[in-house]
Amino acid sequence: MTRHCPTIVTFSGIDGAGKTTQINCVSAHLMDQGYRVTRVSFWDDVAVWAKLRAGVSLAVFRKEPKSSGHPALRNDKNVRTWYLELIRSAFYLLDTLSLCRVVSRLRSPGHDFIIFDRYLYDQLAQIRSRGWLARAYIRALVGLAPKPEAAFLLDASPDEAFARKPEYPLDFMYGYRRAFLSLCTFVPQIIVVAPSSVEKMQDQILEHVSERADLVVESIASA
């Protein structure tokens, strides 16, 4: 068996940005090339007590009533209070430690690529980074978490994303997008994929992933 460190590829972005579509494309492309690909869902496979947290959120923060022909919208991420920020920050630290364990377990000769559907960055986008303490906390978690070789942030028009996936109020989606883009301050290596057609975004992503695949081949050859 070859010995090399698997390449971590992550996809982040607002709901409806097209992450699942691009992940399916990249995974299929790499597997067609003969690479061993493992997909990880951050919420299902990494987040601590994910089902409990989801259940509590749905019970406490009920969906907003239907209006203007739209379905009922979620009302959990967009609730901002100091005590919720504190609770979320504690969970994000636990999620970061869990992420370290998951990545450590997957860094084995049996994997060439580990593709994450969402990453720690999606959690950090929910922290208000205006105060120095919040910024220091974000930097601490970024420093603790494993560094992806390719971290994609799929940018998207909030209106188009909402049309594809009307899950959260539109005004929240605008602020959520700004929070994601501000992550570049803390994670300069994030690759922002500008809003475009599915095919153009796919080409840009595959170009970056192909560069990483070439490095995997070189690593295997030199092992």
In short:
By secondary structure, this protein is of the alpha/beta class.
Describe this structure in words.
The protein is of the alpha/beta class and 223 residues long. It has a single domain (7-222), classed as Rossmann fold (3-Layer(aba) Sandwich), CATH 3.40.50. It is built from nine helices and five strands. It has a five-stranded parallel β-sheet with strand order 2-3-1-4-5. The longest helix is centred in the middle third of the chain and has 25 residues, at 82-106. The mean pLDDT is 87.
Largest sheet: 5 strands, parallel
- Percent helix range: 40-55%
Overall body shape: globular
Which CATH top level class fits? Answer: Alpha Beta
CATH superfamily: P-loop containing nucleotide triphosphate hydrolases
* Number of helical elements: 9
Spatial order of the strands forming the largest sheet: 2-3-1-4-5
Order of SSEs, N→C? EHEHHHEHHEHHEH
pLDDT < 50 runs, ≥5 residues: none
| Number of domain modules | 1
Mean pLDDT: 87
CATH topology: Rossmann fold
Give me some keywords for this one.
single chain; alpha/beta; Rossmann fold; 53% helix; globular
